Amino acid sequence: MILRLILKILKHKLLDICKPSWILAILVAINGYWFIKPVVQHTLEMLPSVLNWSLDWLDLINDIGLAELPRLLLGAGLIIMSIGLALQARLAWAFSLILLLVVAAISFLSSAPGLLLLSYTLVVTLLLLMYWKSFDSSSIAAGSLFALTSTGALMLYAVFGSLYLGDQFSAPIVDMPTAFYFSIVSMSTVGYGDLYPVTSTARLFTASIIVMGITVFATSISAIIGPVIGGNLKKIVKGRISNVMRKNHFIIVGVSPTAHSVYAGLVERGDAVTVVAPVGAEHEYPADADIVFGDPSSADVLVEAGASKAKYILALRNEDAENAFIVLAAKEVGDSDTKTIALVNSSKHIPQIRRVKPDVVFSLQLLGSELLVRTLKGETIDNKLITKLFFGAESTE
């Protein structure tokens, strides 16, 4: 049974690595690198001159090609967004789709060598659309990635644009520090007035920096603050309020047919029941059921389900090894009056389950076969027999 448990854990770890979100994150990162590769190679060739702060930046921009700046931003954005995809962030999924569509459009309008990249981009886009359900989380990390990407892209646009239009300002912008200073002042809408555009083109460019700066900052703040507020509200509604209500209740761990039947029986008799189910597990519990999703053998998850105030904790999963670990976790966080019940799916595992010392061990195989044999033999079936089969002792009634 121990070997089986180890193999199951390894299987879960492998499935975590091979989740669609991870695979798509890798594919998107490859897409971004493929798109950005020509610019990176050309820039690396010019690295010695780039490190020289006294160079003529206008010549450098003309040498690299101003038209290559969007390619640089899009490729870097896809690589950064792949991290958010690995975190299953919906924001990263939406932003990646937008970037991929732009990459596909540029590849379509380019020469023949871009057709292969176009095909790959379209395939990745279709895969993202197919597995959209895998990206349903909202996190601070994803919001931070969005803020980093959008702010970095705007900064590059502002800096290189300022350098390219340098002679169209009141004091010509000819070096990187001045361009960086002007970009920050414009993006933050401070406007000291020491540098200002003097031509229509430069004015339109400066206006675009201001508008995009306000938009990027506002969106970035909402992307970061939103998950914080939403997470706290979710904790208040589903965590704290539910924890107050969870008292003298039954905790059913599992989504097996036995678990569903026991749940229905207890609810029918008016008992309060909390269900602990694995994340993503399919179940038939009603929509208004009190369900806590998480690792059923985790002490933290049982604490969230109110284990310290529960009457019984029932380990009703289909795997005996998992039921044994649930009992161990329940004994760690449960109150002294909390009873544990373990289902044994295979009667040969009863000795192993008894070693973790649950209060009740029952096997449907053993119970069913004993009742059937006694019925066939015409022997008495009463409360004393049922109590003995469940508890291993005579009834006190």
TrEMBL record:
<dbReference type="InterPro" id="IPR036291">
    <property type="entry name" value="NAD(P)-bd_dom_sf"/>
</dbReference>
<keyword id="KW-0813">Transport</keyword>
<feature type="transmembrane region" description="Helical">
    <location>
        <begin position="21"/>
        <end position="40"/>
    </location>
</feature>
<feature type="transmembrane region" description="Helical">
    <location>
        <begin position="144"/>
        <end position="166"/>
    </location>
</feature>
<feature type="transmembrane region" description="Helical">
    <location>
        <begin position="91"/>
        <end position="109"/>
    </location>
</feature>
<dbReference type="GO" id="GO:0034220">
    <property type="term" value="P:monoatomic ion transmembrane transport"/>
</dbReference>
<keyword id="KW-0812">Transmembrane</keyword>
<dbReference type="InterPro" id="IPR003148">
    <property type="entry name" value="RCK_N"/>
</dbReference>
<protein>
    <submittedName>
        <fullName>Voltage-gated potassium channel protein</fullName>
    </submittedName>
</protein>
<keyword id="KW-0407">Ion channel</keyword>
<dbReference type="Pfam" id="PF02254">
    <property type="entry name" value="TrkA_N"/>
</dbReference>
<feature type="domain" description="RCK N-terminal">
    <location>
        <begin position="247"/>
        <end position="362"/>
    </location>
</feature>
<keyword id="KW-0472">Membrane</keyword>
<dbReference type="GO" id="GO:0006813">
    <property type="term" value="P:potassium ion transport"/>
</dbReference>
<keyword id="KW-1133">Transmembrane helix</keyword>
<dbReference type="GO" id="GO:0005886">
    <property type="term" value="C:plasma membrane"/>
</dbReference>
<dbReference type="InterPro" id="IPR013099">
    <property type="entry name" value="K_chnl_dom"/>
</dbReference>
<feature type="transmembrane region" description="Helical">
    <location>
        <begin position="60"/>
        <end position="84"/>
    </location>
</feature>
<keyword id="KW-0406">Ion transport</keyword>
<dbReference type="InterPro" id="IPR050721">
    <property type="entry name" value="Trk_Ktr_HKT_K-transport"/>
</dbReference>
<feature type="transmembrane region" description="Helical">
    <location>
        <begin position="178"/>
        <end position="197"/>
    </location>
</feature>
<feature type="transmembrane region" description="Helical">
    <location>
        <begin position="115"/>
        <end position="132"/>
    </location>
</feature>
<feature type="transmembrane region" description="Helical">
    <location>
        <begin position="204"/>
        <end position="229"/>
    </location>
</feature>
<dbReference type="Pfam" id="PF07885">
    <property type="entry name" value="Ion_trans_2"/>
</dbReference>
